[in-house]
């Protein structure tokens, strides 16, 4: 034996042990499923699904880890983010209203009104011009265009009235307000443009920093979830358990029914054997008594009436020839085991039996057999008609002093073969020789074993006095199908 063969055999034995353990585990689990109620099965299934849903997001079925990726920096120089542009500041100059009126010398004279954050100042034009340098400095920016302060100059004609001055001032005020609104709008637009430029610069700065970090090194967070399959696995387990519970229960029920059927068949077979043994025992008890009485009658007739003695002897021989196969079949020696044979063979035993009794009872016994030839081949249980005929004579006609008549009739009624034995004797159970009813009980039991509920025995009073017993069995020719 090579080492390879030894290893192969070892793994084969391990596989066999594993297979056997798996099969035992499966059957144990299936038996447990079949044993629990459907309500408990549903509750356990719901609990399993809930537990699977809870476990899928907690360790050890789900966890996360962080991985740092380092890259060489090299000669990489991160670009500088662009600097946000600052919004231009506009020098705020006080708003002024200049009112000029020419004097007599032709020079401009008047008042200068200045409106700023310090309030409203009214200054004569001559005083303002006397300041010299200040006026030159104020005029220089205005000339160069750098001064954006709203300025309104109103020239009045010489000798203007106060109403004209007021109207001029109101017009100047409106012009100043409109100029201020325009200046504020321009300032708001400039501030909004500056904010947008700053936001764009911040985004560019973040992008530059992210690029630098990715080049220098990065941290990656990975999540591992092995529990995602748990709800699906739980659902699959529930469905498989449901299928096992249904199919395995049917299999167990089928096995139980098969075992019960086998047990019932064995029980019925034993009961049939017991019943047939009882019938055989009864027949064995009847035959010797009947045989001895018949032989004694033949011996007496040989001296007084040899012709009748010879006829009686022939009937006895015919009776024995016909009844011997019946007794063997009742004991289980025949092919049918005493279950059933044709009605003609039953009559072959009954006819010589009645002829012998007619010789013994003489005029006290009258018989009539009404069986069509077409029914002689019908299947009928053995020894049942003979038992009914014997009971009718022994307990009904023979104890009656004047005797009576016995009628045997066979007919088809509603698809069943009815065999009726009628006597005009004392009546059922009224004779002193009335038996214990064991024979009728055995007949009922045999009919139940052979045909179930399809056969019956009926005992009624005969309208003319006596008893009427009817056996009804399914009509079936021997060797053929039921009609």
Note down, in words, how this protein is organized.
The structure is a single chain. The protein has 483 residues and is of the alpha+beta class. Among the domains are: 111 residues, no CATH class; 225 residues, Heat Shock Protein 90. The chain contains ten helices and 13 strands. Strands 8-10-11-13-12 form a five-stranded mixed β-sheet, with helices on one face. Strands 4-3-2-5 form a four-stranded mixed β-sheet. A two-stranded antiparallel ribbon has the order 1-6. Strand 12 and strand 13 form a beta hairpin. Helix 1 crosses helix 6, helix 2 runs antiparallel to helix 6 and helix 6 packs antiparallel against helix 7. The longest helix has 75 residues. The chain is elongated and about 200 Å long. It starts with a helix and ends in a 9-residue tail after the last strand.
Largest sheet: 5 strands, mixed
**What is the level-2 CATH architecture name of the domain at 250-474?**
2-Layer Sandwich
Task: Give the helix/strand class.
Answer: alpha+beta
Q: How large is the count of helical segments?
A: 10
């Amino acid at each position: 034996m090579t080492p390879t063969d030894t290893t192969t055999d070892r793994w084969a034995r391990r596989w066999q042990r594993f297979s056997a353990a798996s099969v035992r585990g499966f059957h144990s689990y299936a038996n447990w499923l079949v044993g629990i109620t459907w309500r408990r099965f549903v509750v356990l299934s719901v609990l399993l699904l809930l537990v699977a849903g809870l476990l899928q997001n907690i360790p050890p079925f789900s966890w996360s880890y962080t991985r740092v990726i380092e890259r060489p920096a090299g000669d990489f120089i991160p670009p500088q983010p662009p600097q946000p542009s600052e919004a231009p500041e506009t020098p705020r100059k006080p708003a002024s209203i200049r009112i000029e009126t020419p004097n007599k010398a032709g020079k401009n004279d008047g008042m200068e009104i200045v409106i700023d954050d310090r309030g409203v100042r009214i200054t004569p034009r001559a005083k303002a011009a006397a300041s010299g340098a200040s006026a030159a400095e104020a005029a220089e920016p205005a000339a160069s265009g750098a001064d954006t302060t709203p300025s309104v100059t109103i020239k009045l004609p010489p000798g203007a009235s106060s109403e004209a001055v007021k109207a001029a001032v109101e017009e100047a005020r409106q012009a100043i307000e409109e100029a201020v609104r325009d200046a504020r709008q321009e300032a708001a637009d400039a501030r909004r443009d500056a904010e947008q430029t700053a936001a764009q610069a911040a985004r560019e700065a973040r992008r530059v920093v992210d690029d630098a970090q990715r080049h220098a090194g990065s941290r990656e967070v990975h999540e591992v979830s092995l529990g995602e399959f748990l709800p699906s696995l739980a659902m699959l387990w529930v469905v498989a358990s449901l299928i096992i519970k249904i199919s395995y229960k049917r299999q167990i029920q089928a096995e139980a029914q098969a075992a019960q059927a086998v047990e019932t068949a064995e029980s019925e077979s034993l009961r049939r054997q017991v019943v047939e043994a009882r019938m055989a025992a009864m027949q064995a008890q009847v035959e010797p008594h009947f045989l001895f009485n018949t032989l004694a009658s033949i011996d007496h007739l040989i001296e007084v009436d040899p012709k009748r003695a010879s006829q009686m002897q022939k009937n006895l021989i015919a009776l024995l020839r016909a009844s011997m196969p019946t007794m063997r079949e009742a004991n289980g020696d025949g092919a049918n085991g005493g279950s059933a044979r044709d009605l003609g063979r039953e009559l072959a035993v009954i006819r010589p039996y009645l002829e012998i009794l007619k010789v013994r009872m003489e005029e006290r016994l009258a018989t009539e057999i009404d069986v069509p030839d077409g029914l002689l081949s019908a299947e009928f249980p053995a020894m049942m008609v003979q038992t009914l005929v014997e009971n009718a004579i022994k307990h009904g006609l023979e104890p009656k002093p004047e005797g009576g008549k016995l009628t045997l009739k066979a007919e088809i009624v509603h698809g069943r073969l009815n065999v009726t034995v009628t006597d005009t004797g004392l009546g059922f159970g009224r004779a002193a020789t009335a038996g214990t009813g064991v024979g009728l009980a055995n007949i009922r039991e045999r009919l139940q074993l052979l045909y179930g509920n399809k056969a019956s025995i009926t005992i009624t009073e005969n309208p003319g006095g006596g008893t009427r017993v009817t056996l009804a069995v399914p009509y079936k020719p021997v060797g053929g199908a039921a009609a």
